Each structure stands twice: as structure tokens, then as C-alpha cells.
Amino acid sequence: MDALIASYGDDSGSDSDCDPAAPVPNKSLVSGVLPPPPVDLLSTPNSSAVEFLQKDRIRSFAHVEGNYALHVFIPVYIPSAAKKGLAQLLKKLVSCMPDLSAIDVDVPLNILCKDDEKLEQIALGREFHISLGRTVPVRVHQINSMVSMLRQRLQFQRRYKIDFTNFEIFVNDDHTRTFVSLEVTAAGLSEIKKQIQAVDEVYKLHNLPEFYKDPRPHISLAWALGDISQSLKRVVEYEVKRSPMAGGSLGKPIFGCKFEGIECKIGKKSHVICKCPEE
């Protein structure tokens, strides 16, 4: 996966316009978007208004009858203490990059930014994912075997701390989408890499493609169509350096959470692979 590192600065700043040197992406990348409903209709990530707002996507693999998309991941929730600072940063980013959308729910961030409560609830209050394997198609007859083997290899997991330490820009393999993400580079990194290796073993046994050779665990907060990594990197770098949440805290995590377990989603059905016992 192509990635461009966005710095995590140490100087604080106040609200102001975005860097004039950072170009705004070509809006022609987004086409066929229906007019959005009022922001007060957006109550939950599963609302019909959210579905109404979804943009056209390009599949990472062709749909085949009898195939189901498989995704193995660690669920992550952003703690309340971190949401307000992240929401303010997202508002600054979208003022320069208006084509950014909230991850998964695909609601344009410029709509959510009109209401701080909706922004925190819909863009930051949902479940995020640290991927432990590629999203790949599996056949019906492989499902039980996949789930069983994943549980066998990952059943004995203990809680550990995960720190998200810096902002990162990622681009998907076919360069059709660009993501604003938070990367794990310290606490939790070694444990997550071991879990990725275990998932890779199961993938290999089912003739599925393994994960990236140098995995970079992360969650994604927002996305835009096309490869706009160069311009988005400049904007993120500029705004992060001026953000109070980065001021004077070089090396300090943006936020941390506890590893609680691993899930696997196949089609629309979720499977619990492992769940850490209560301490």
C-alpha cells in the first residue's frame, strides 16, 4: 500500500484559514452525488439519510454470485476525550478539502461539520477497524473453515494497550481512494503484527492473498475519491502542526485504547474470533 507520512507537529496554533499553498483536489473526481438532506436527518450511521448520501465506489474485486467479502479486524472505539480535538481537526481539513467523507458511512464531512454533535456522533462515534488481513472474496464452502481456523489460531489473546501516535495518508492499491488515518507505531504494534501473521497463515491455507509485507496498522477517519495523496498530505501536515492536540506533545499518543478482541465479517454477518476475558 502506498503511504505518505504526515508529520505529528509540536507547535500549537489558533483557528485560521488553510495553507494557501495546498491545492484543493479536482472536484471532477466526485460525480453523480445526490443533493444531501438536512443535517438534522442524520441521526445514526444506519439511517436512510446516510444511505442516500453514499457515493459511487469502485469495487476492489468483481462481484461473483456465491462469493462473500471477508474482513478480519480489531474493533476500535475513539474515547470521548479525544473526539472533540479530532472533530476540530476534521473541520479544518474539510475547509481545505471539501470532498472528504466520513469513513464507512460515506457522509460528506462538510455536511456533518455544520453540527458539532453530529460530527462527533457520526464521524467519530462509530466502530473503527484495524485490519488484520486483506478484504478478499471467499466462497460459501470456505466460510466455516475460515472461521474455525481463525478461532483456533487466535483464541488465546490477552488485553494490551494500543496507541495511535501519528496521522498518515494511505492510498488503496488501485489508487481509487485516499484515506486520512491514524497509525499505530508504538504500543500495540508488535502484538498486532503477530496477529496479522496468524491471519496470513489461515489465508494461505485457503489460497487467499496475504497481507502487506510491512504492515502498518491503522484506522481510517475520512476518505476521498481518487489519488489525492500529495495535496491531502500537505493539508494534513499543515493543520496537524497547528492543532492544539499536537502542541508540545511530540511522541505523545493522539489517543489510546485497549485491545478487547478480534472479529471477522463475511458478507453482512459478523463472527467473534476471540474476546479477551474480563480482568
TrEMBL record:
GO cellular-component term (any): nucleus
Pfam family, one: HVSL
Location of the active site: H129 (proton donor/acceptor), H218 (proton donor/acceptor)
Domain of life from the UniProt record: Eukaryota
Main location: nucleus
Leader sequence residues: none
Hydrolase listed as a keyword: yes
Compartments where found: Nucleus
GO annotation (BP), single: U6 snRNA 3'-end processing
UniProtKB keywords: Hydrolase, Lyase, Nuclease, Nucleus
E.C. code: 3.1.4.-
GO molecular function, one term: poly(U)-specific exoribonuclease activity, producing 3' uridine cyclic phosphate ends
Family: Belongs to the 2H phosphoesterase superfamily. USB1 family.
HAMAP family according to UniProt: USB1 (MF_03040)
Chain's role: Phosphodiesterase responsible for the U6 snRNA 3' end processing. Acts as an exoribonuclease (RNase) responsible for trimming the poly(U) tract of the last nucleotides in the pre-U6 snRNA molecule, leading to the formation of mature U6 snRNA.
Protein known as: U6 snRNA phosphodiesterase
Source species: Kalanchoe fedtschenkoi
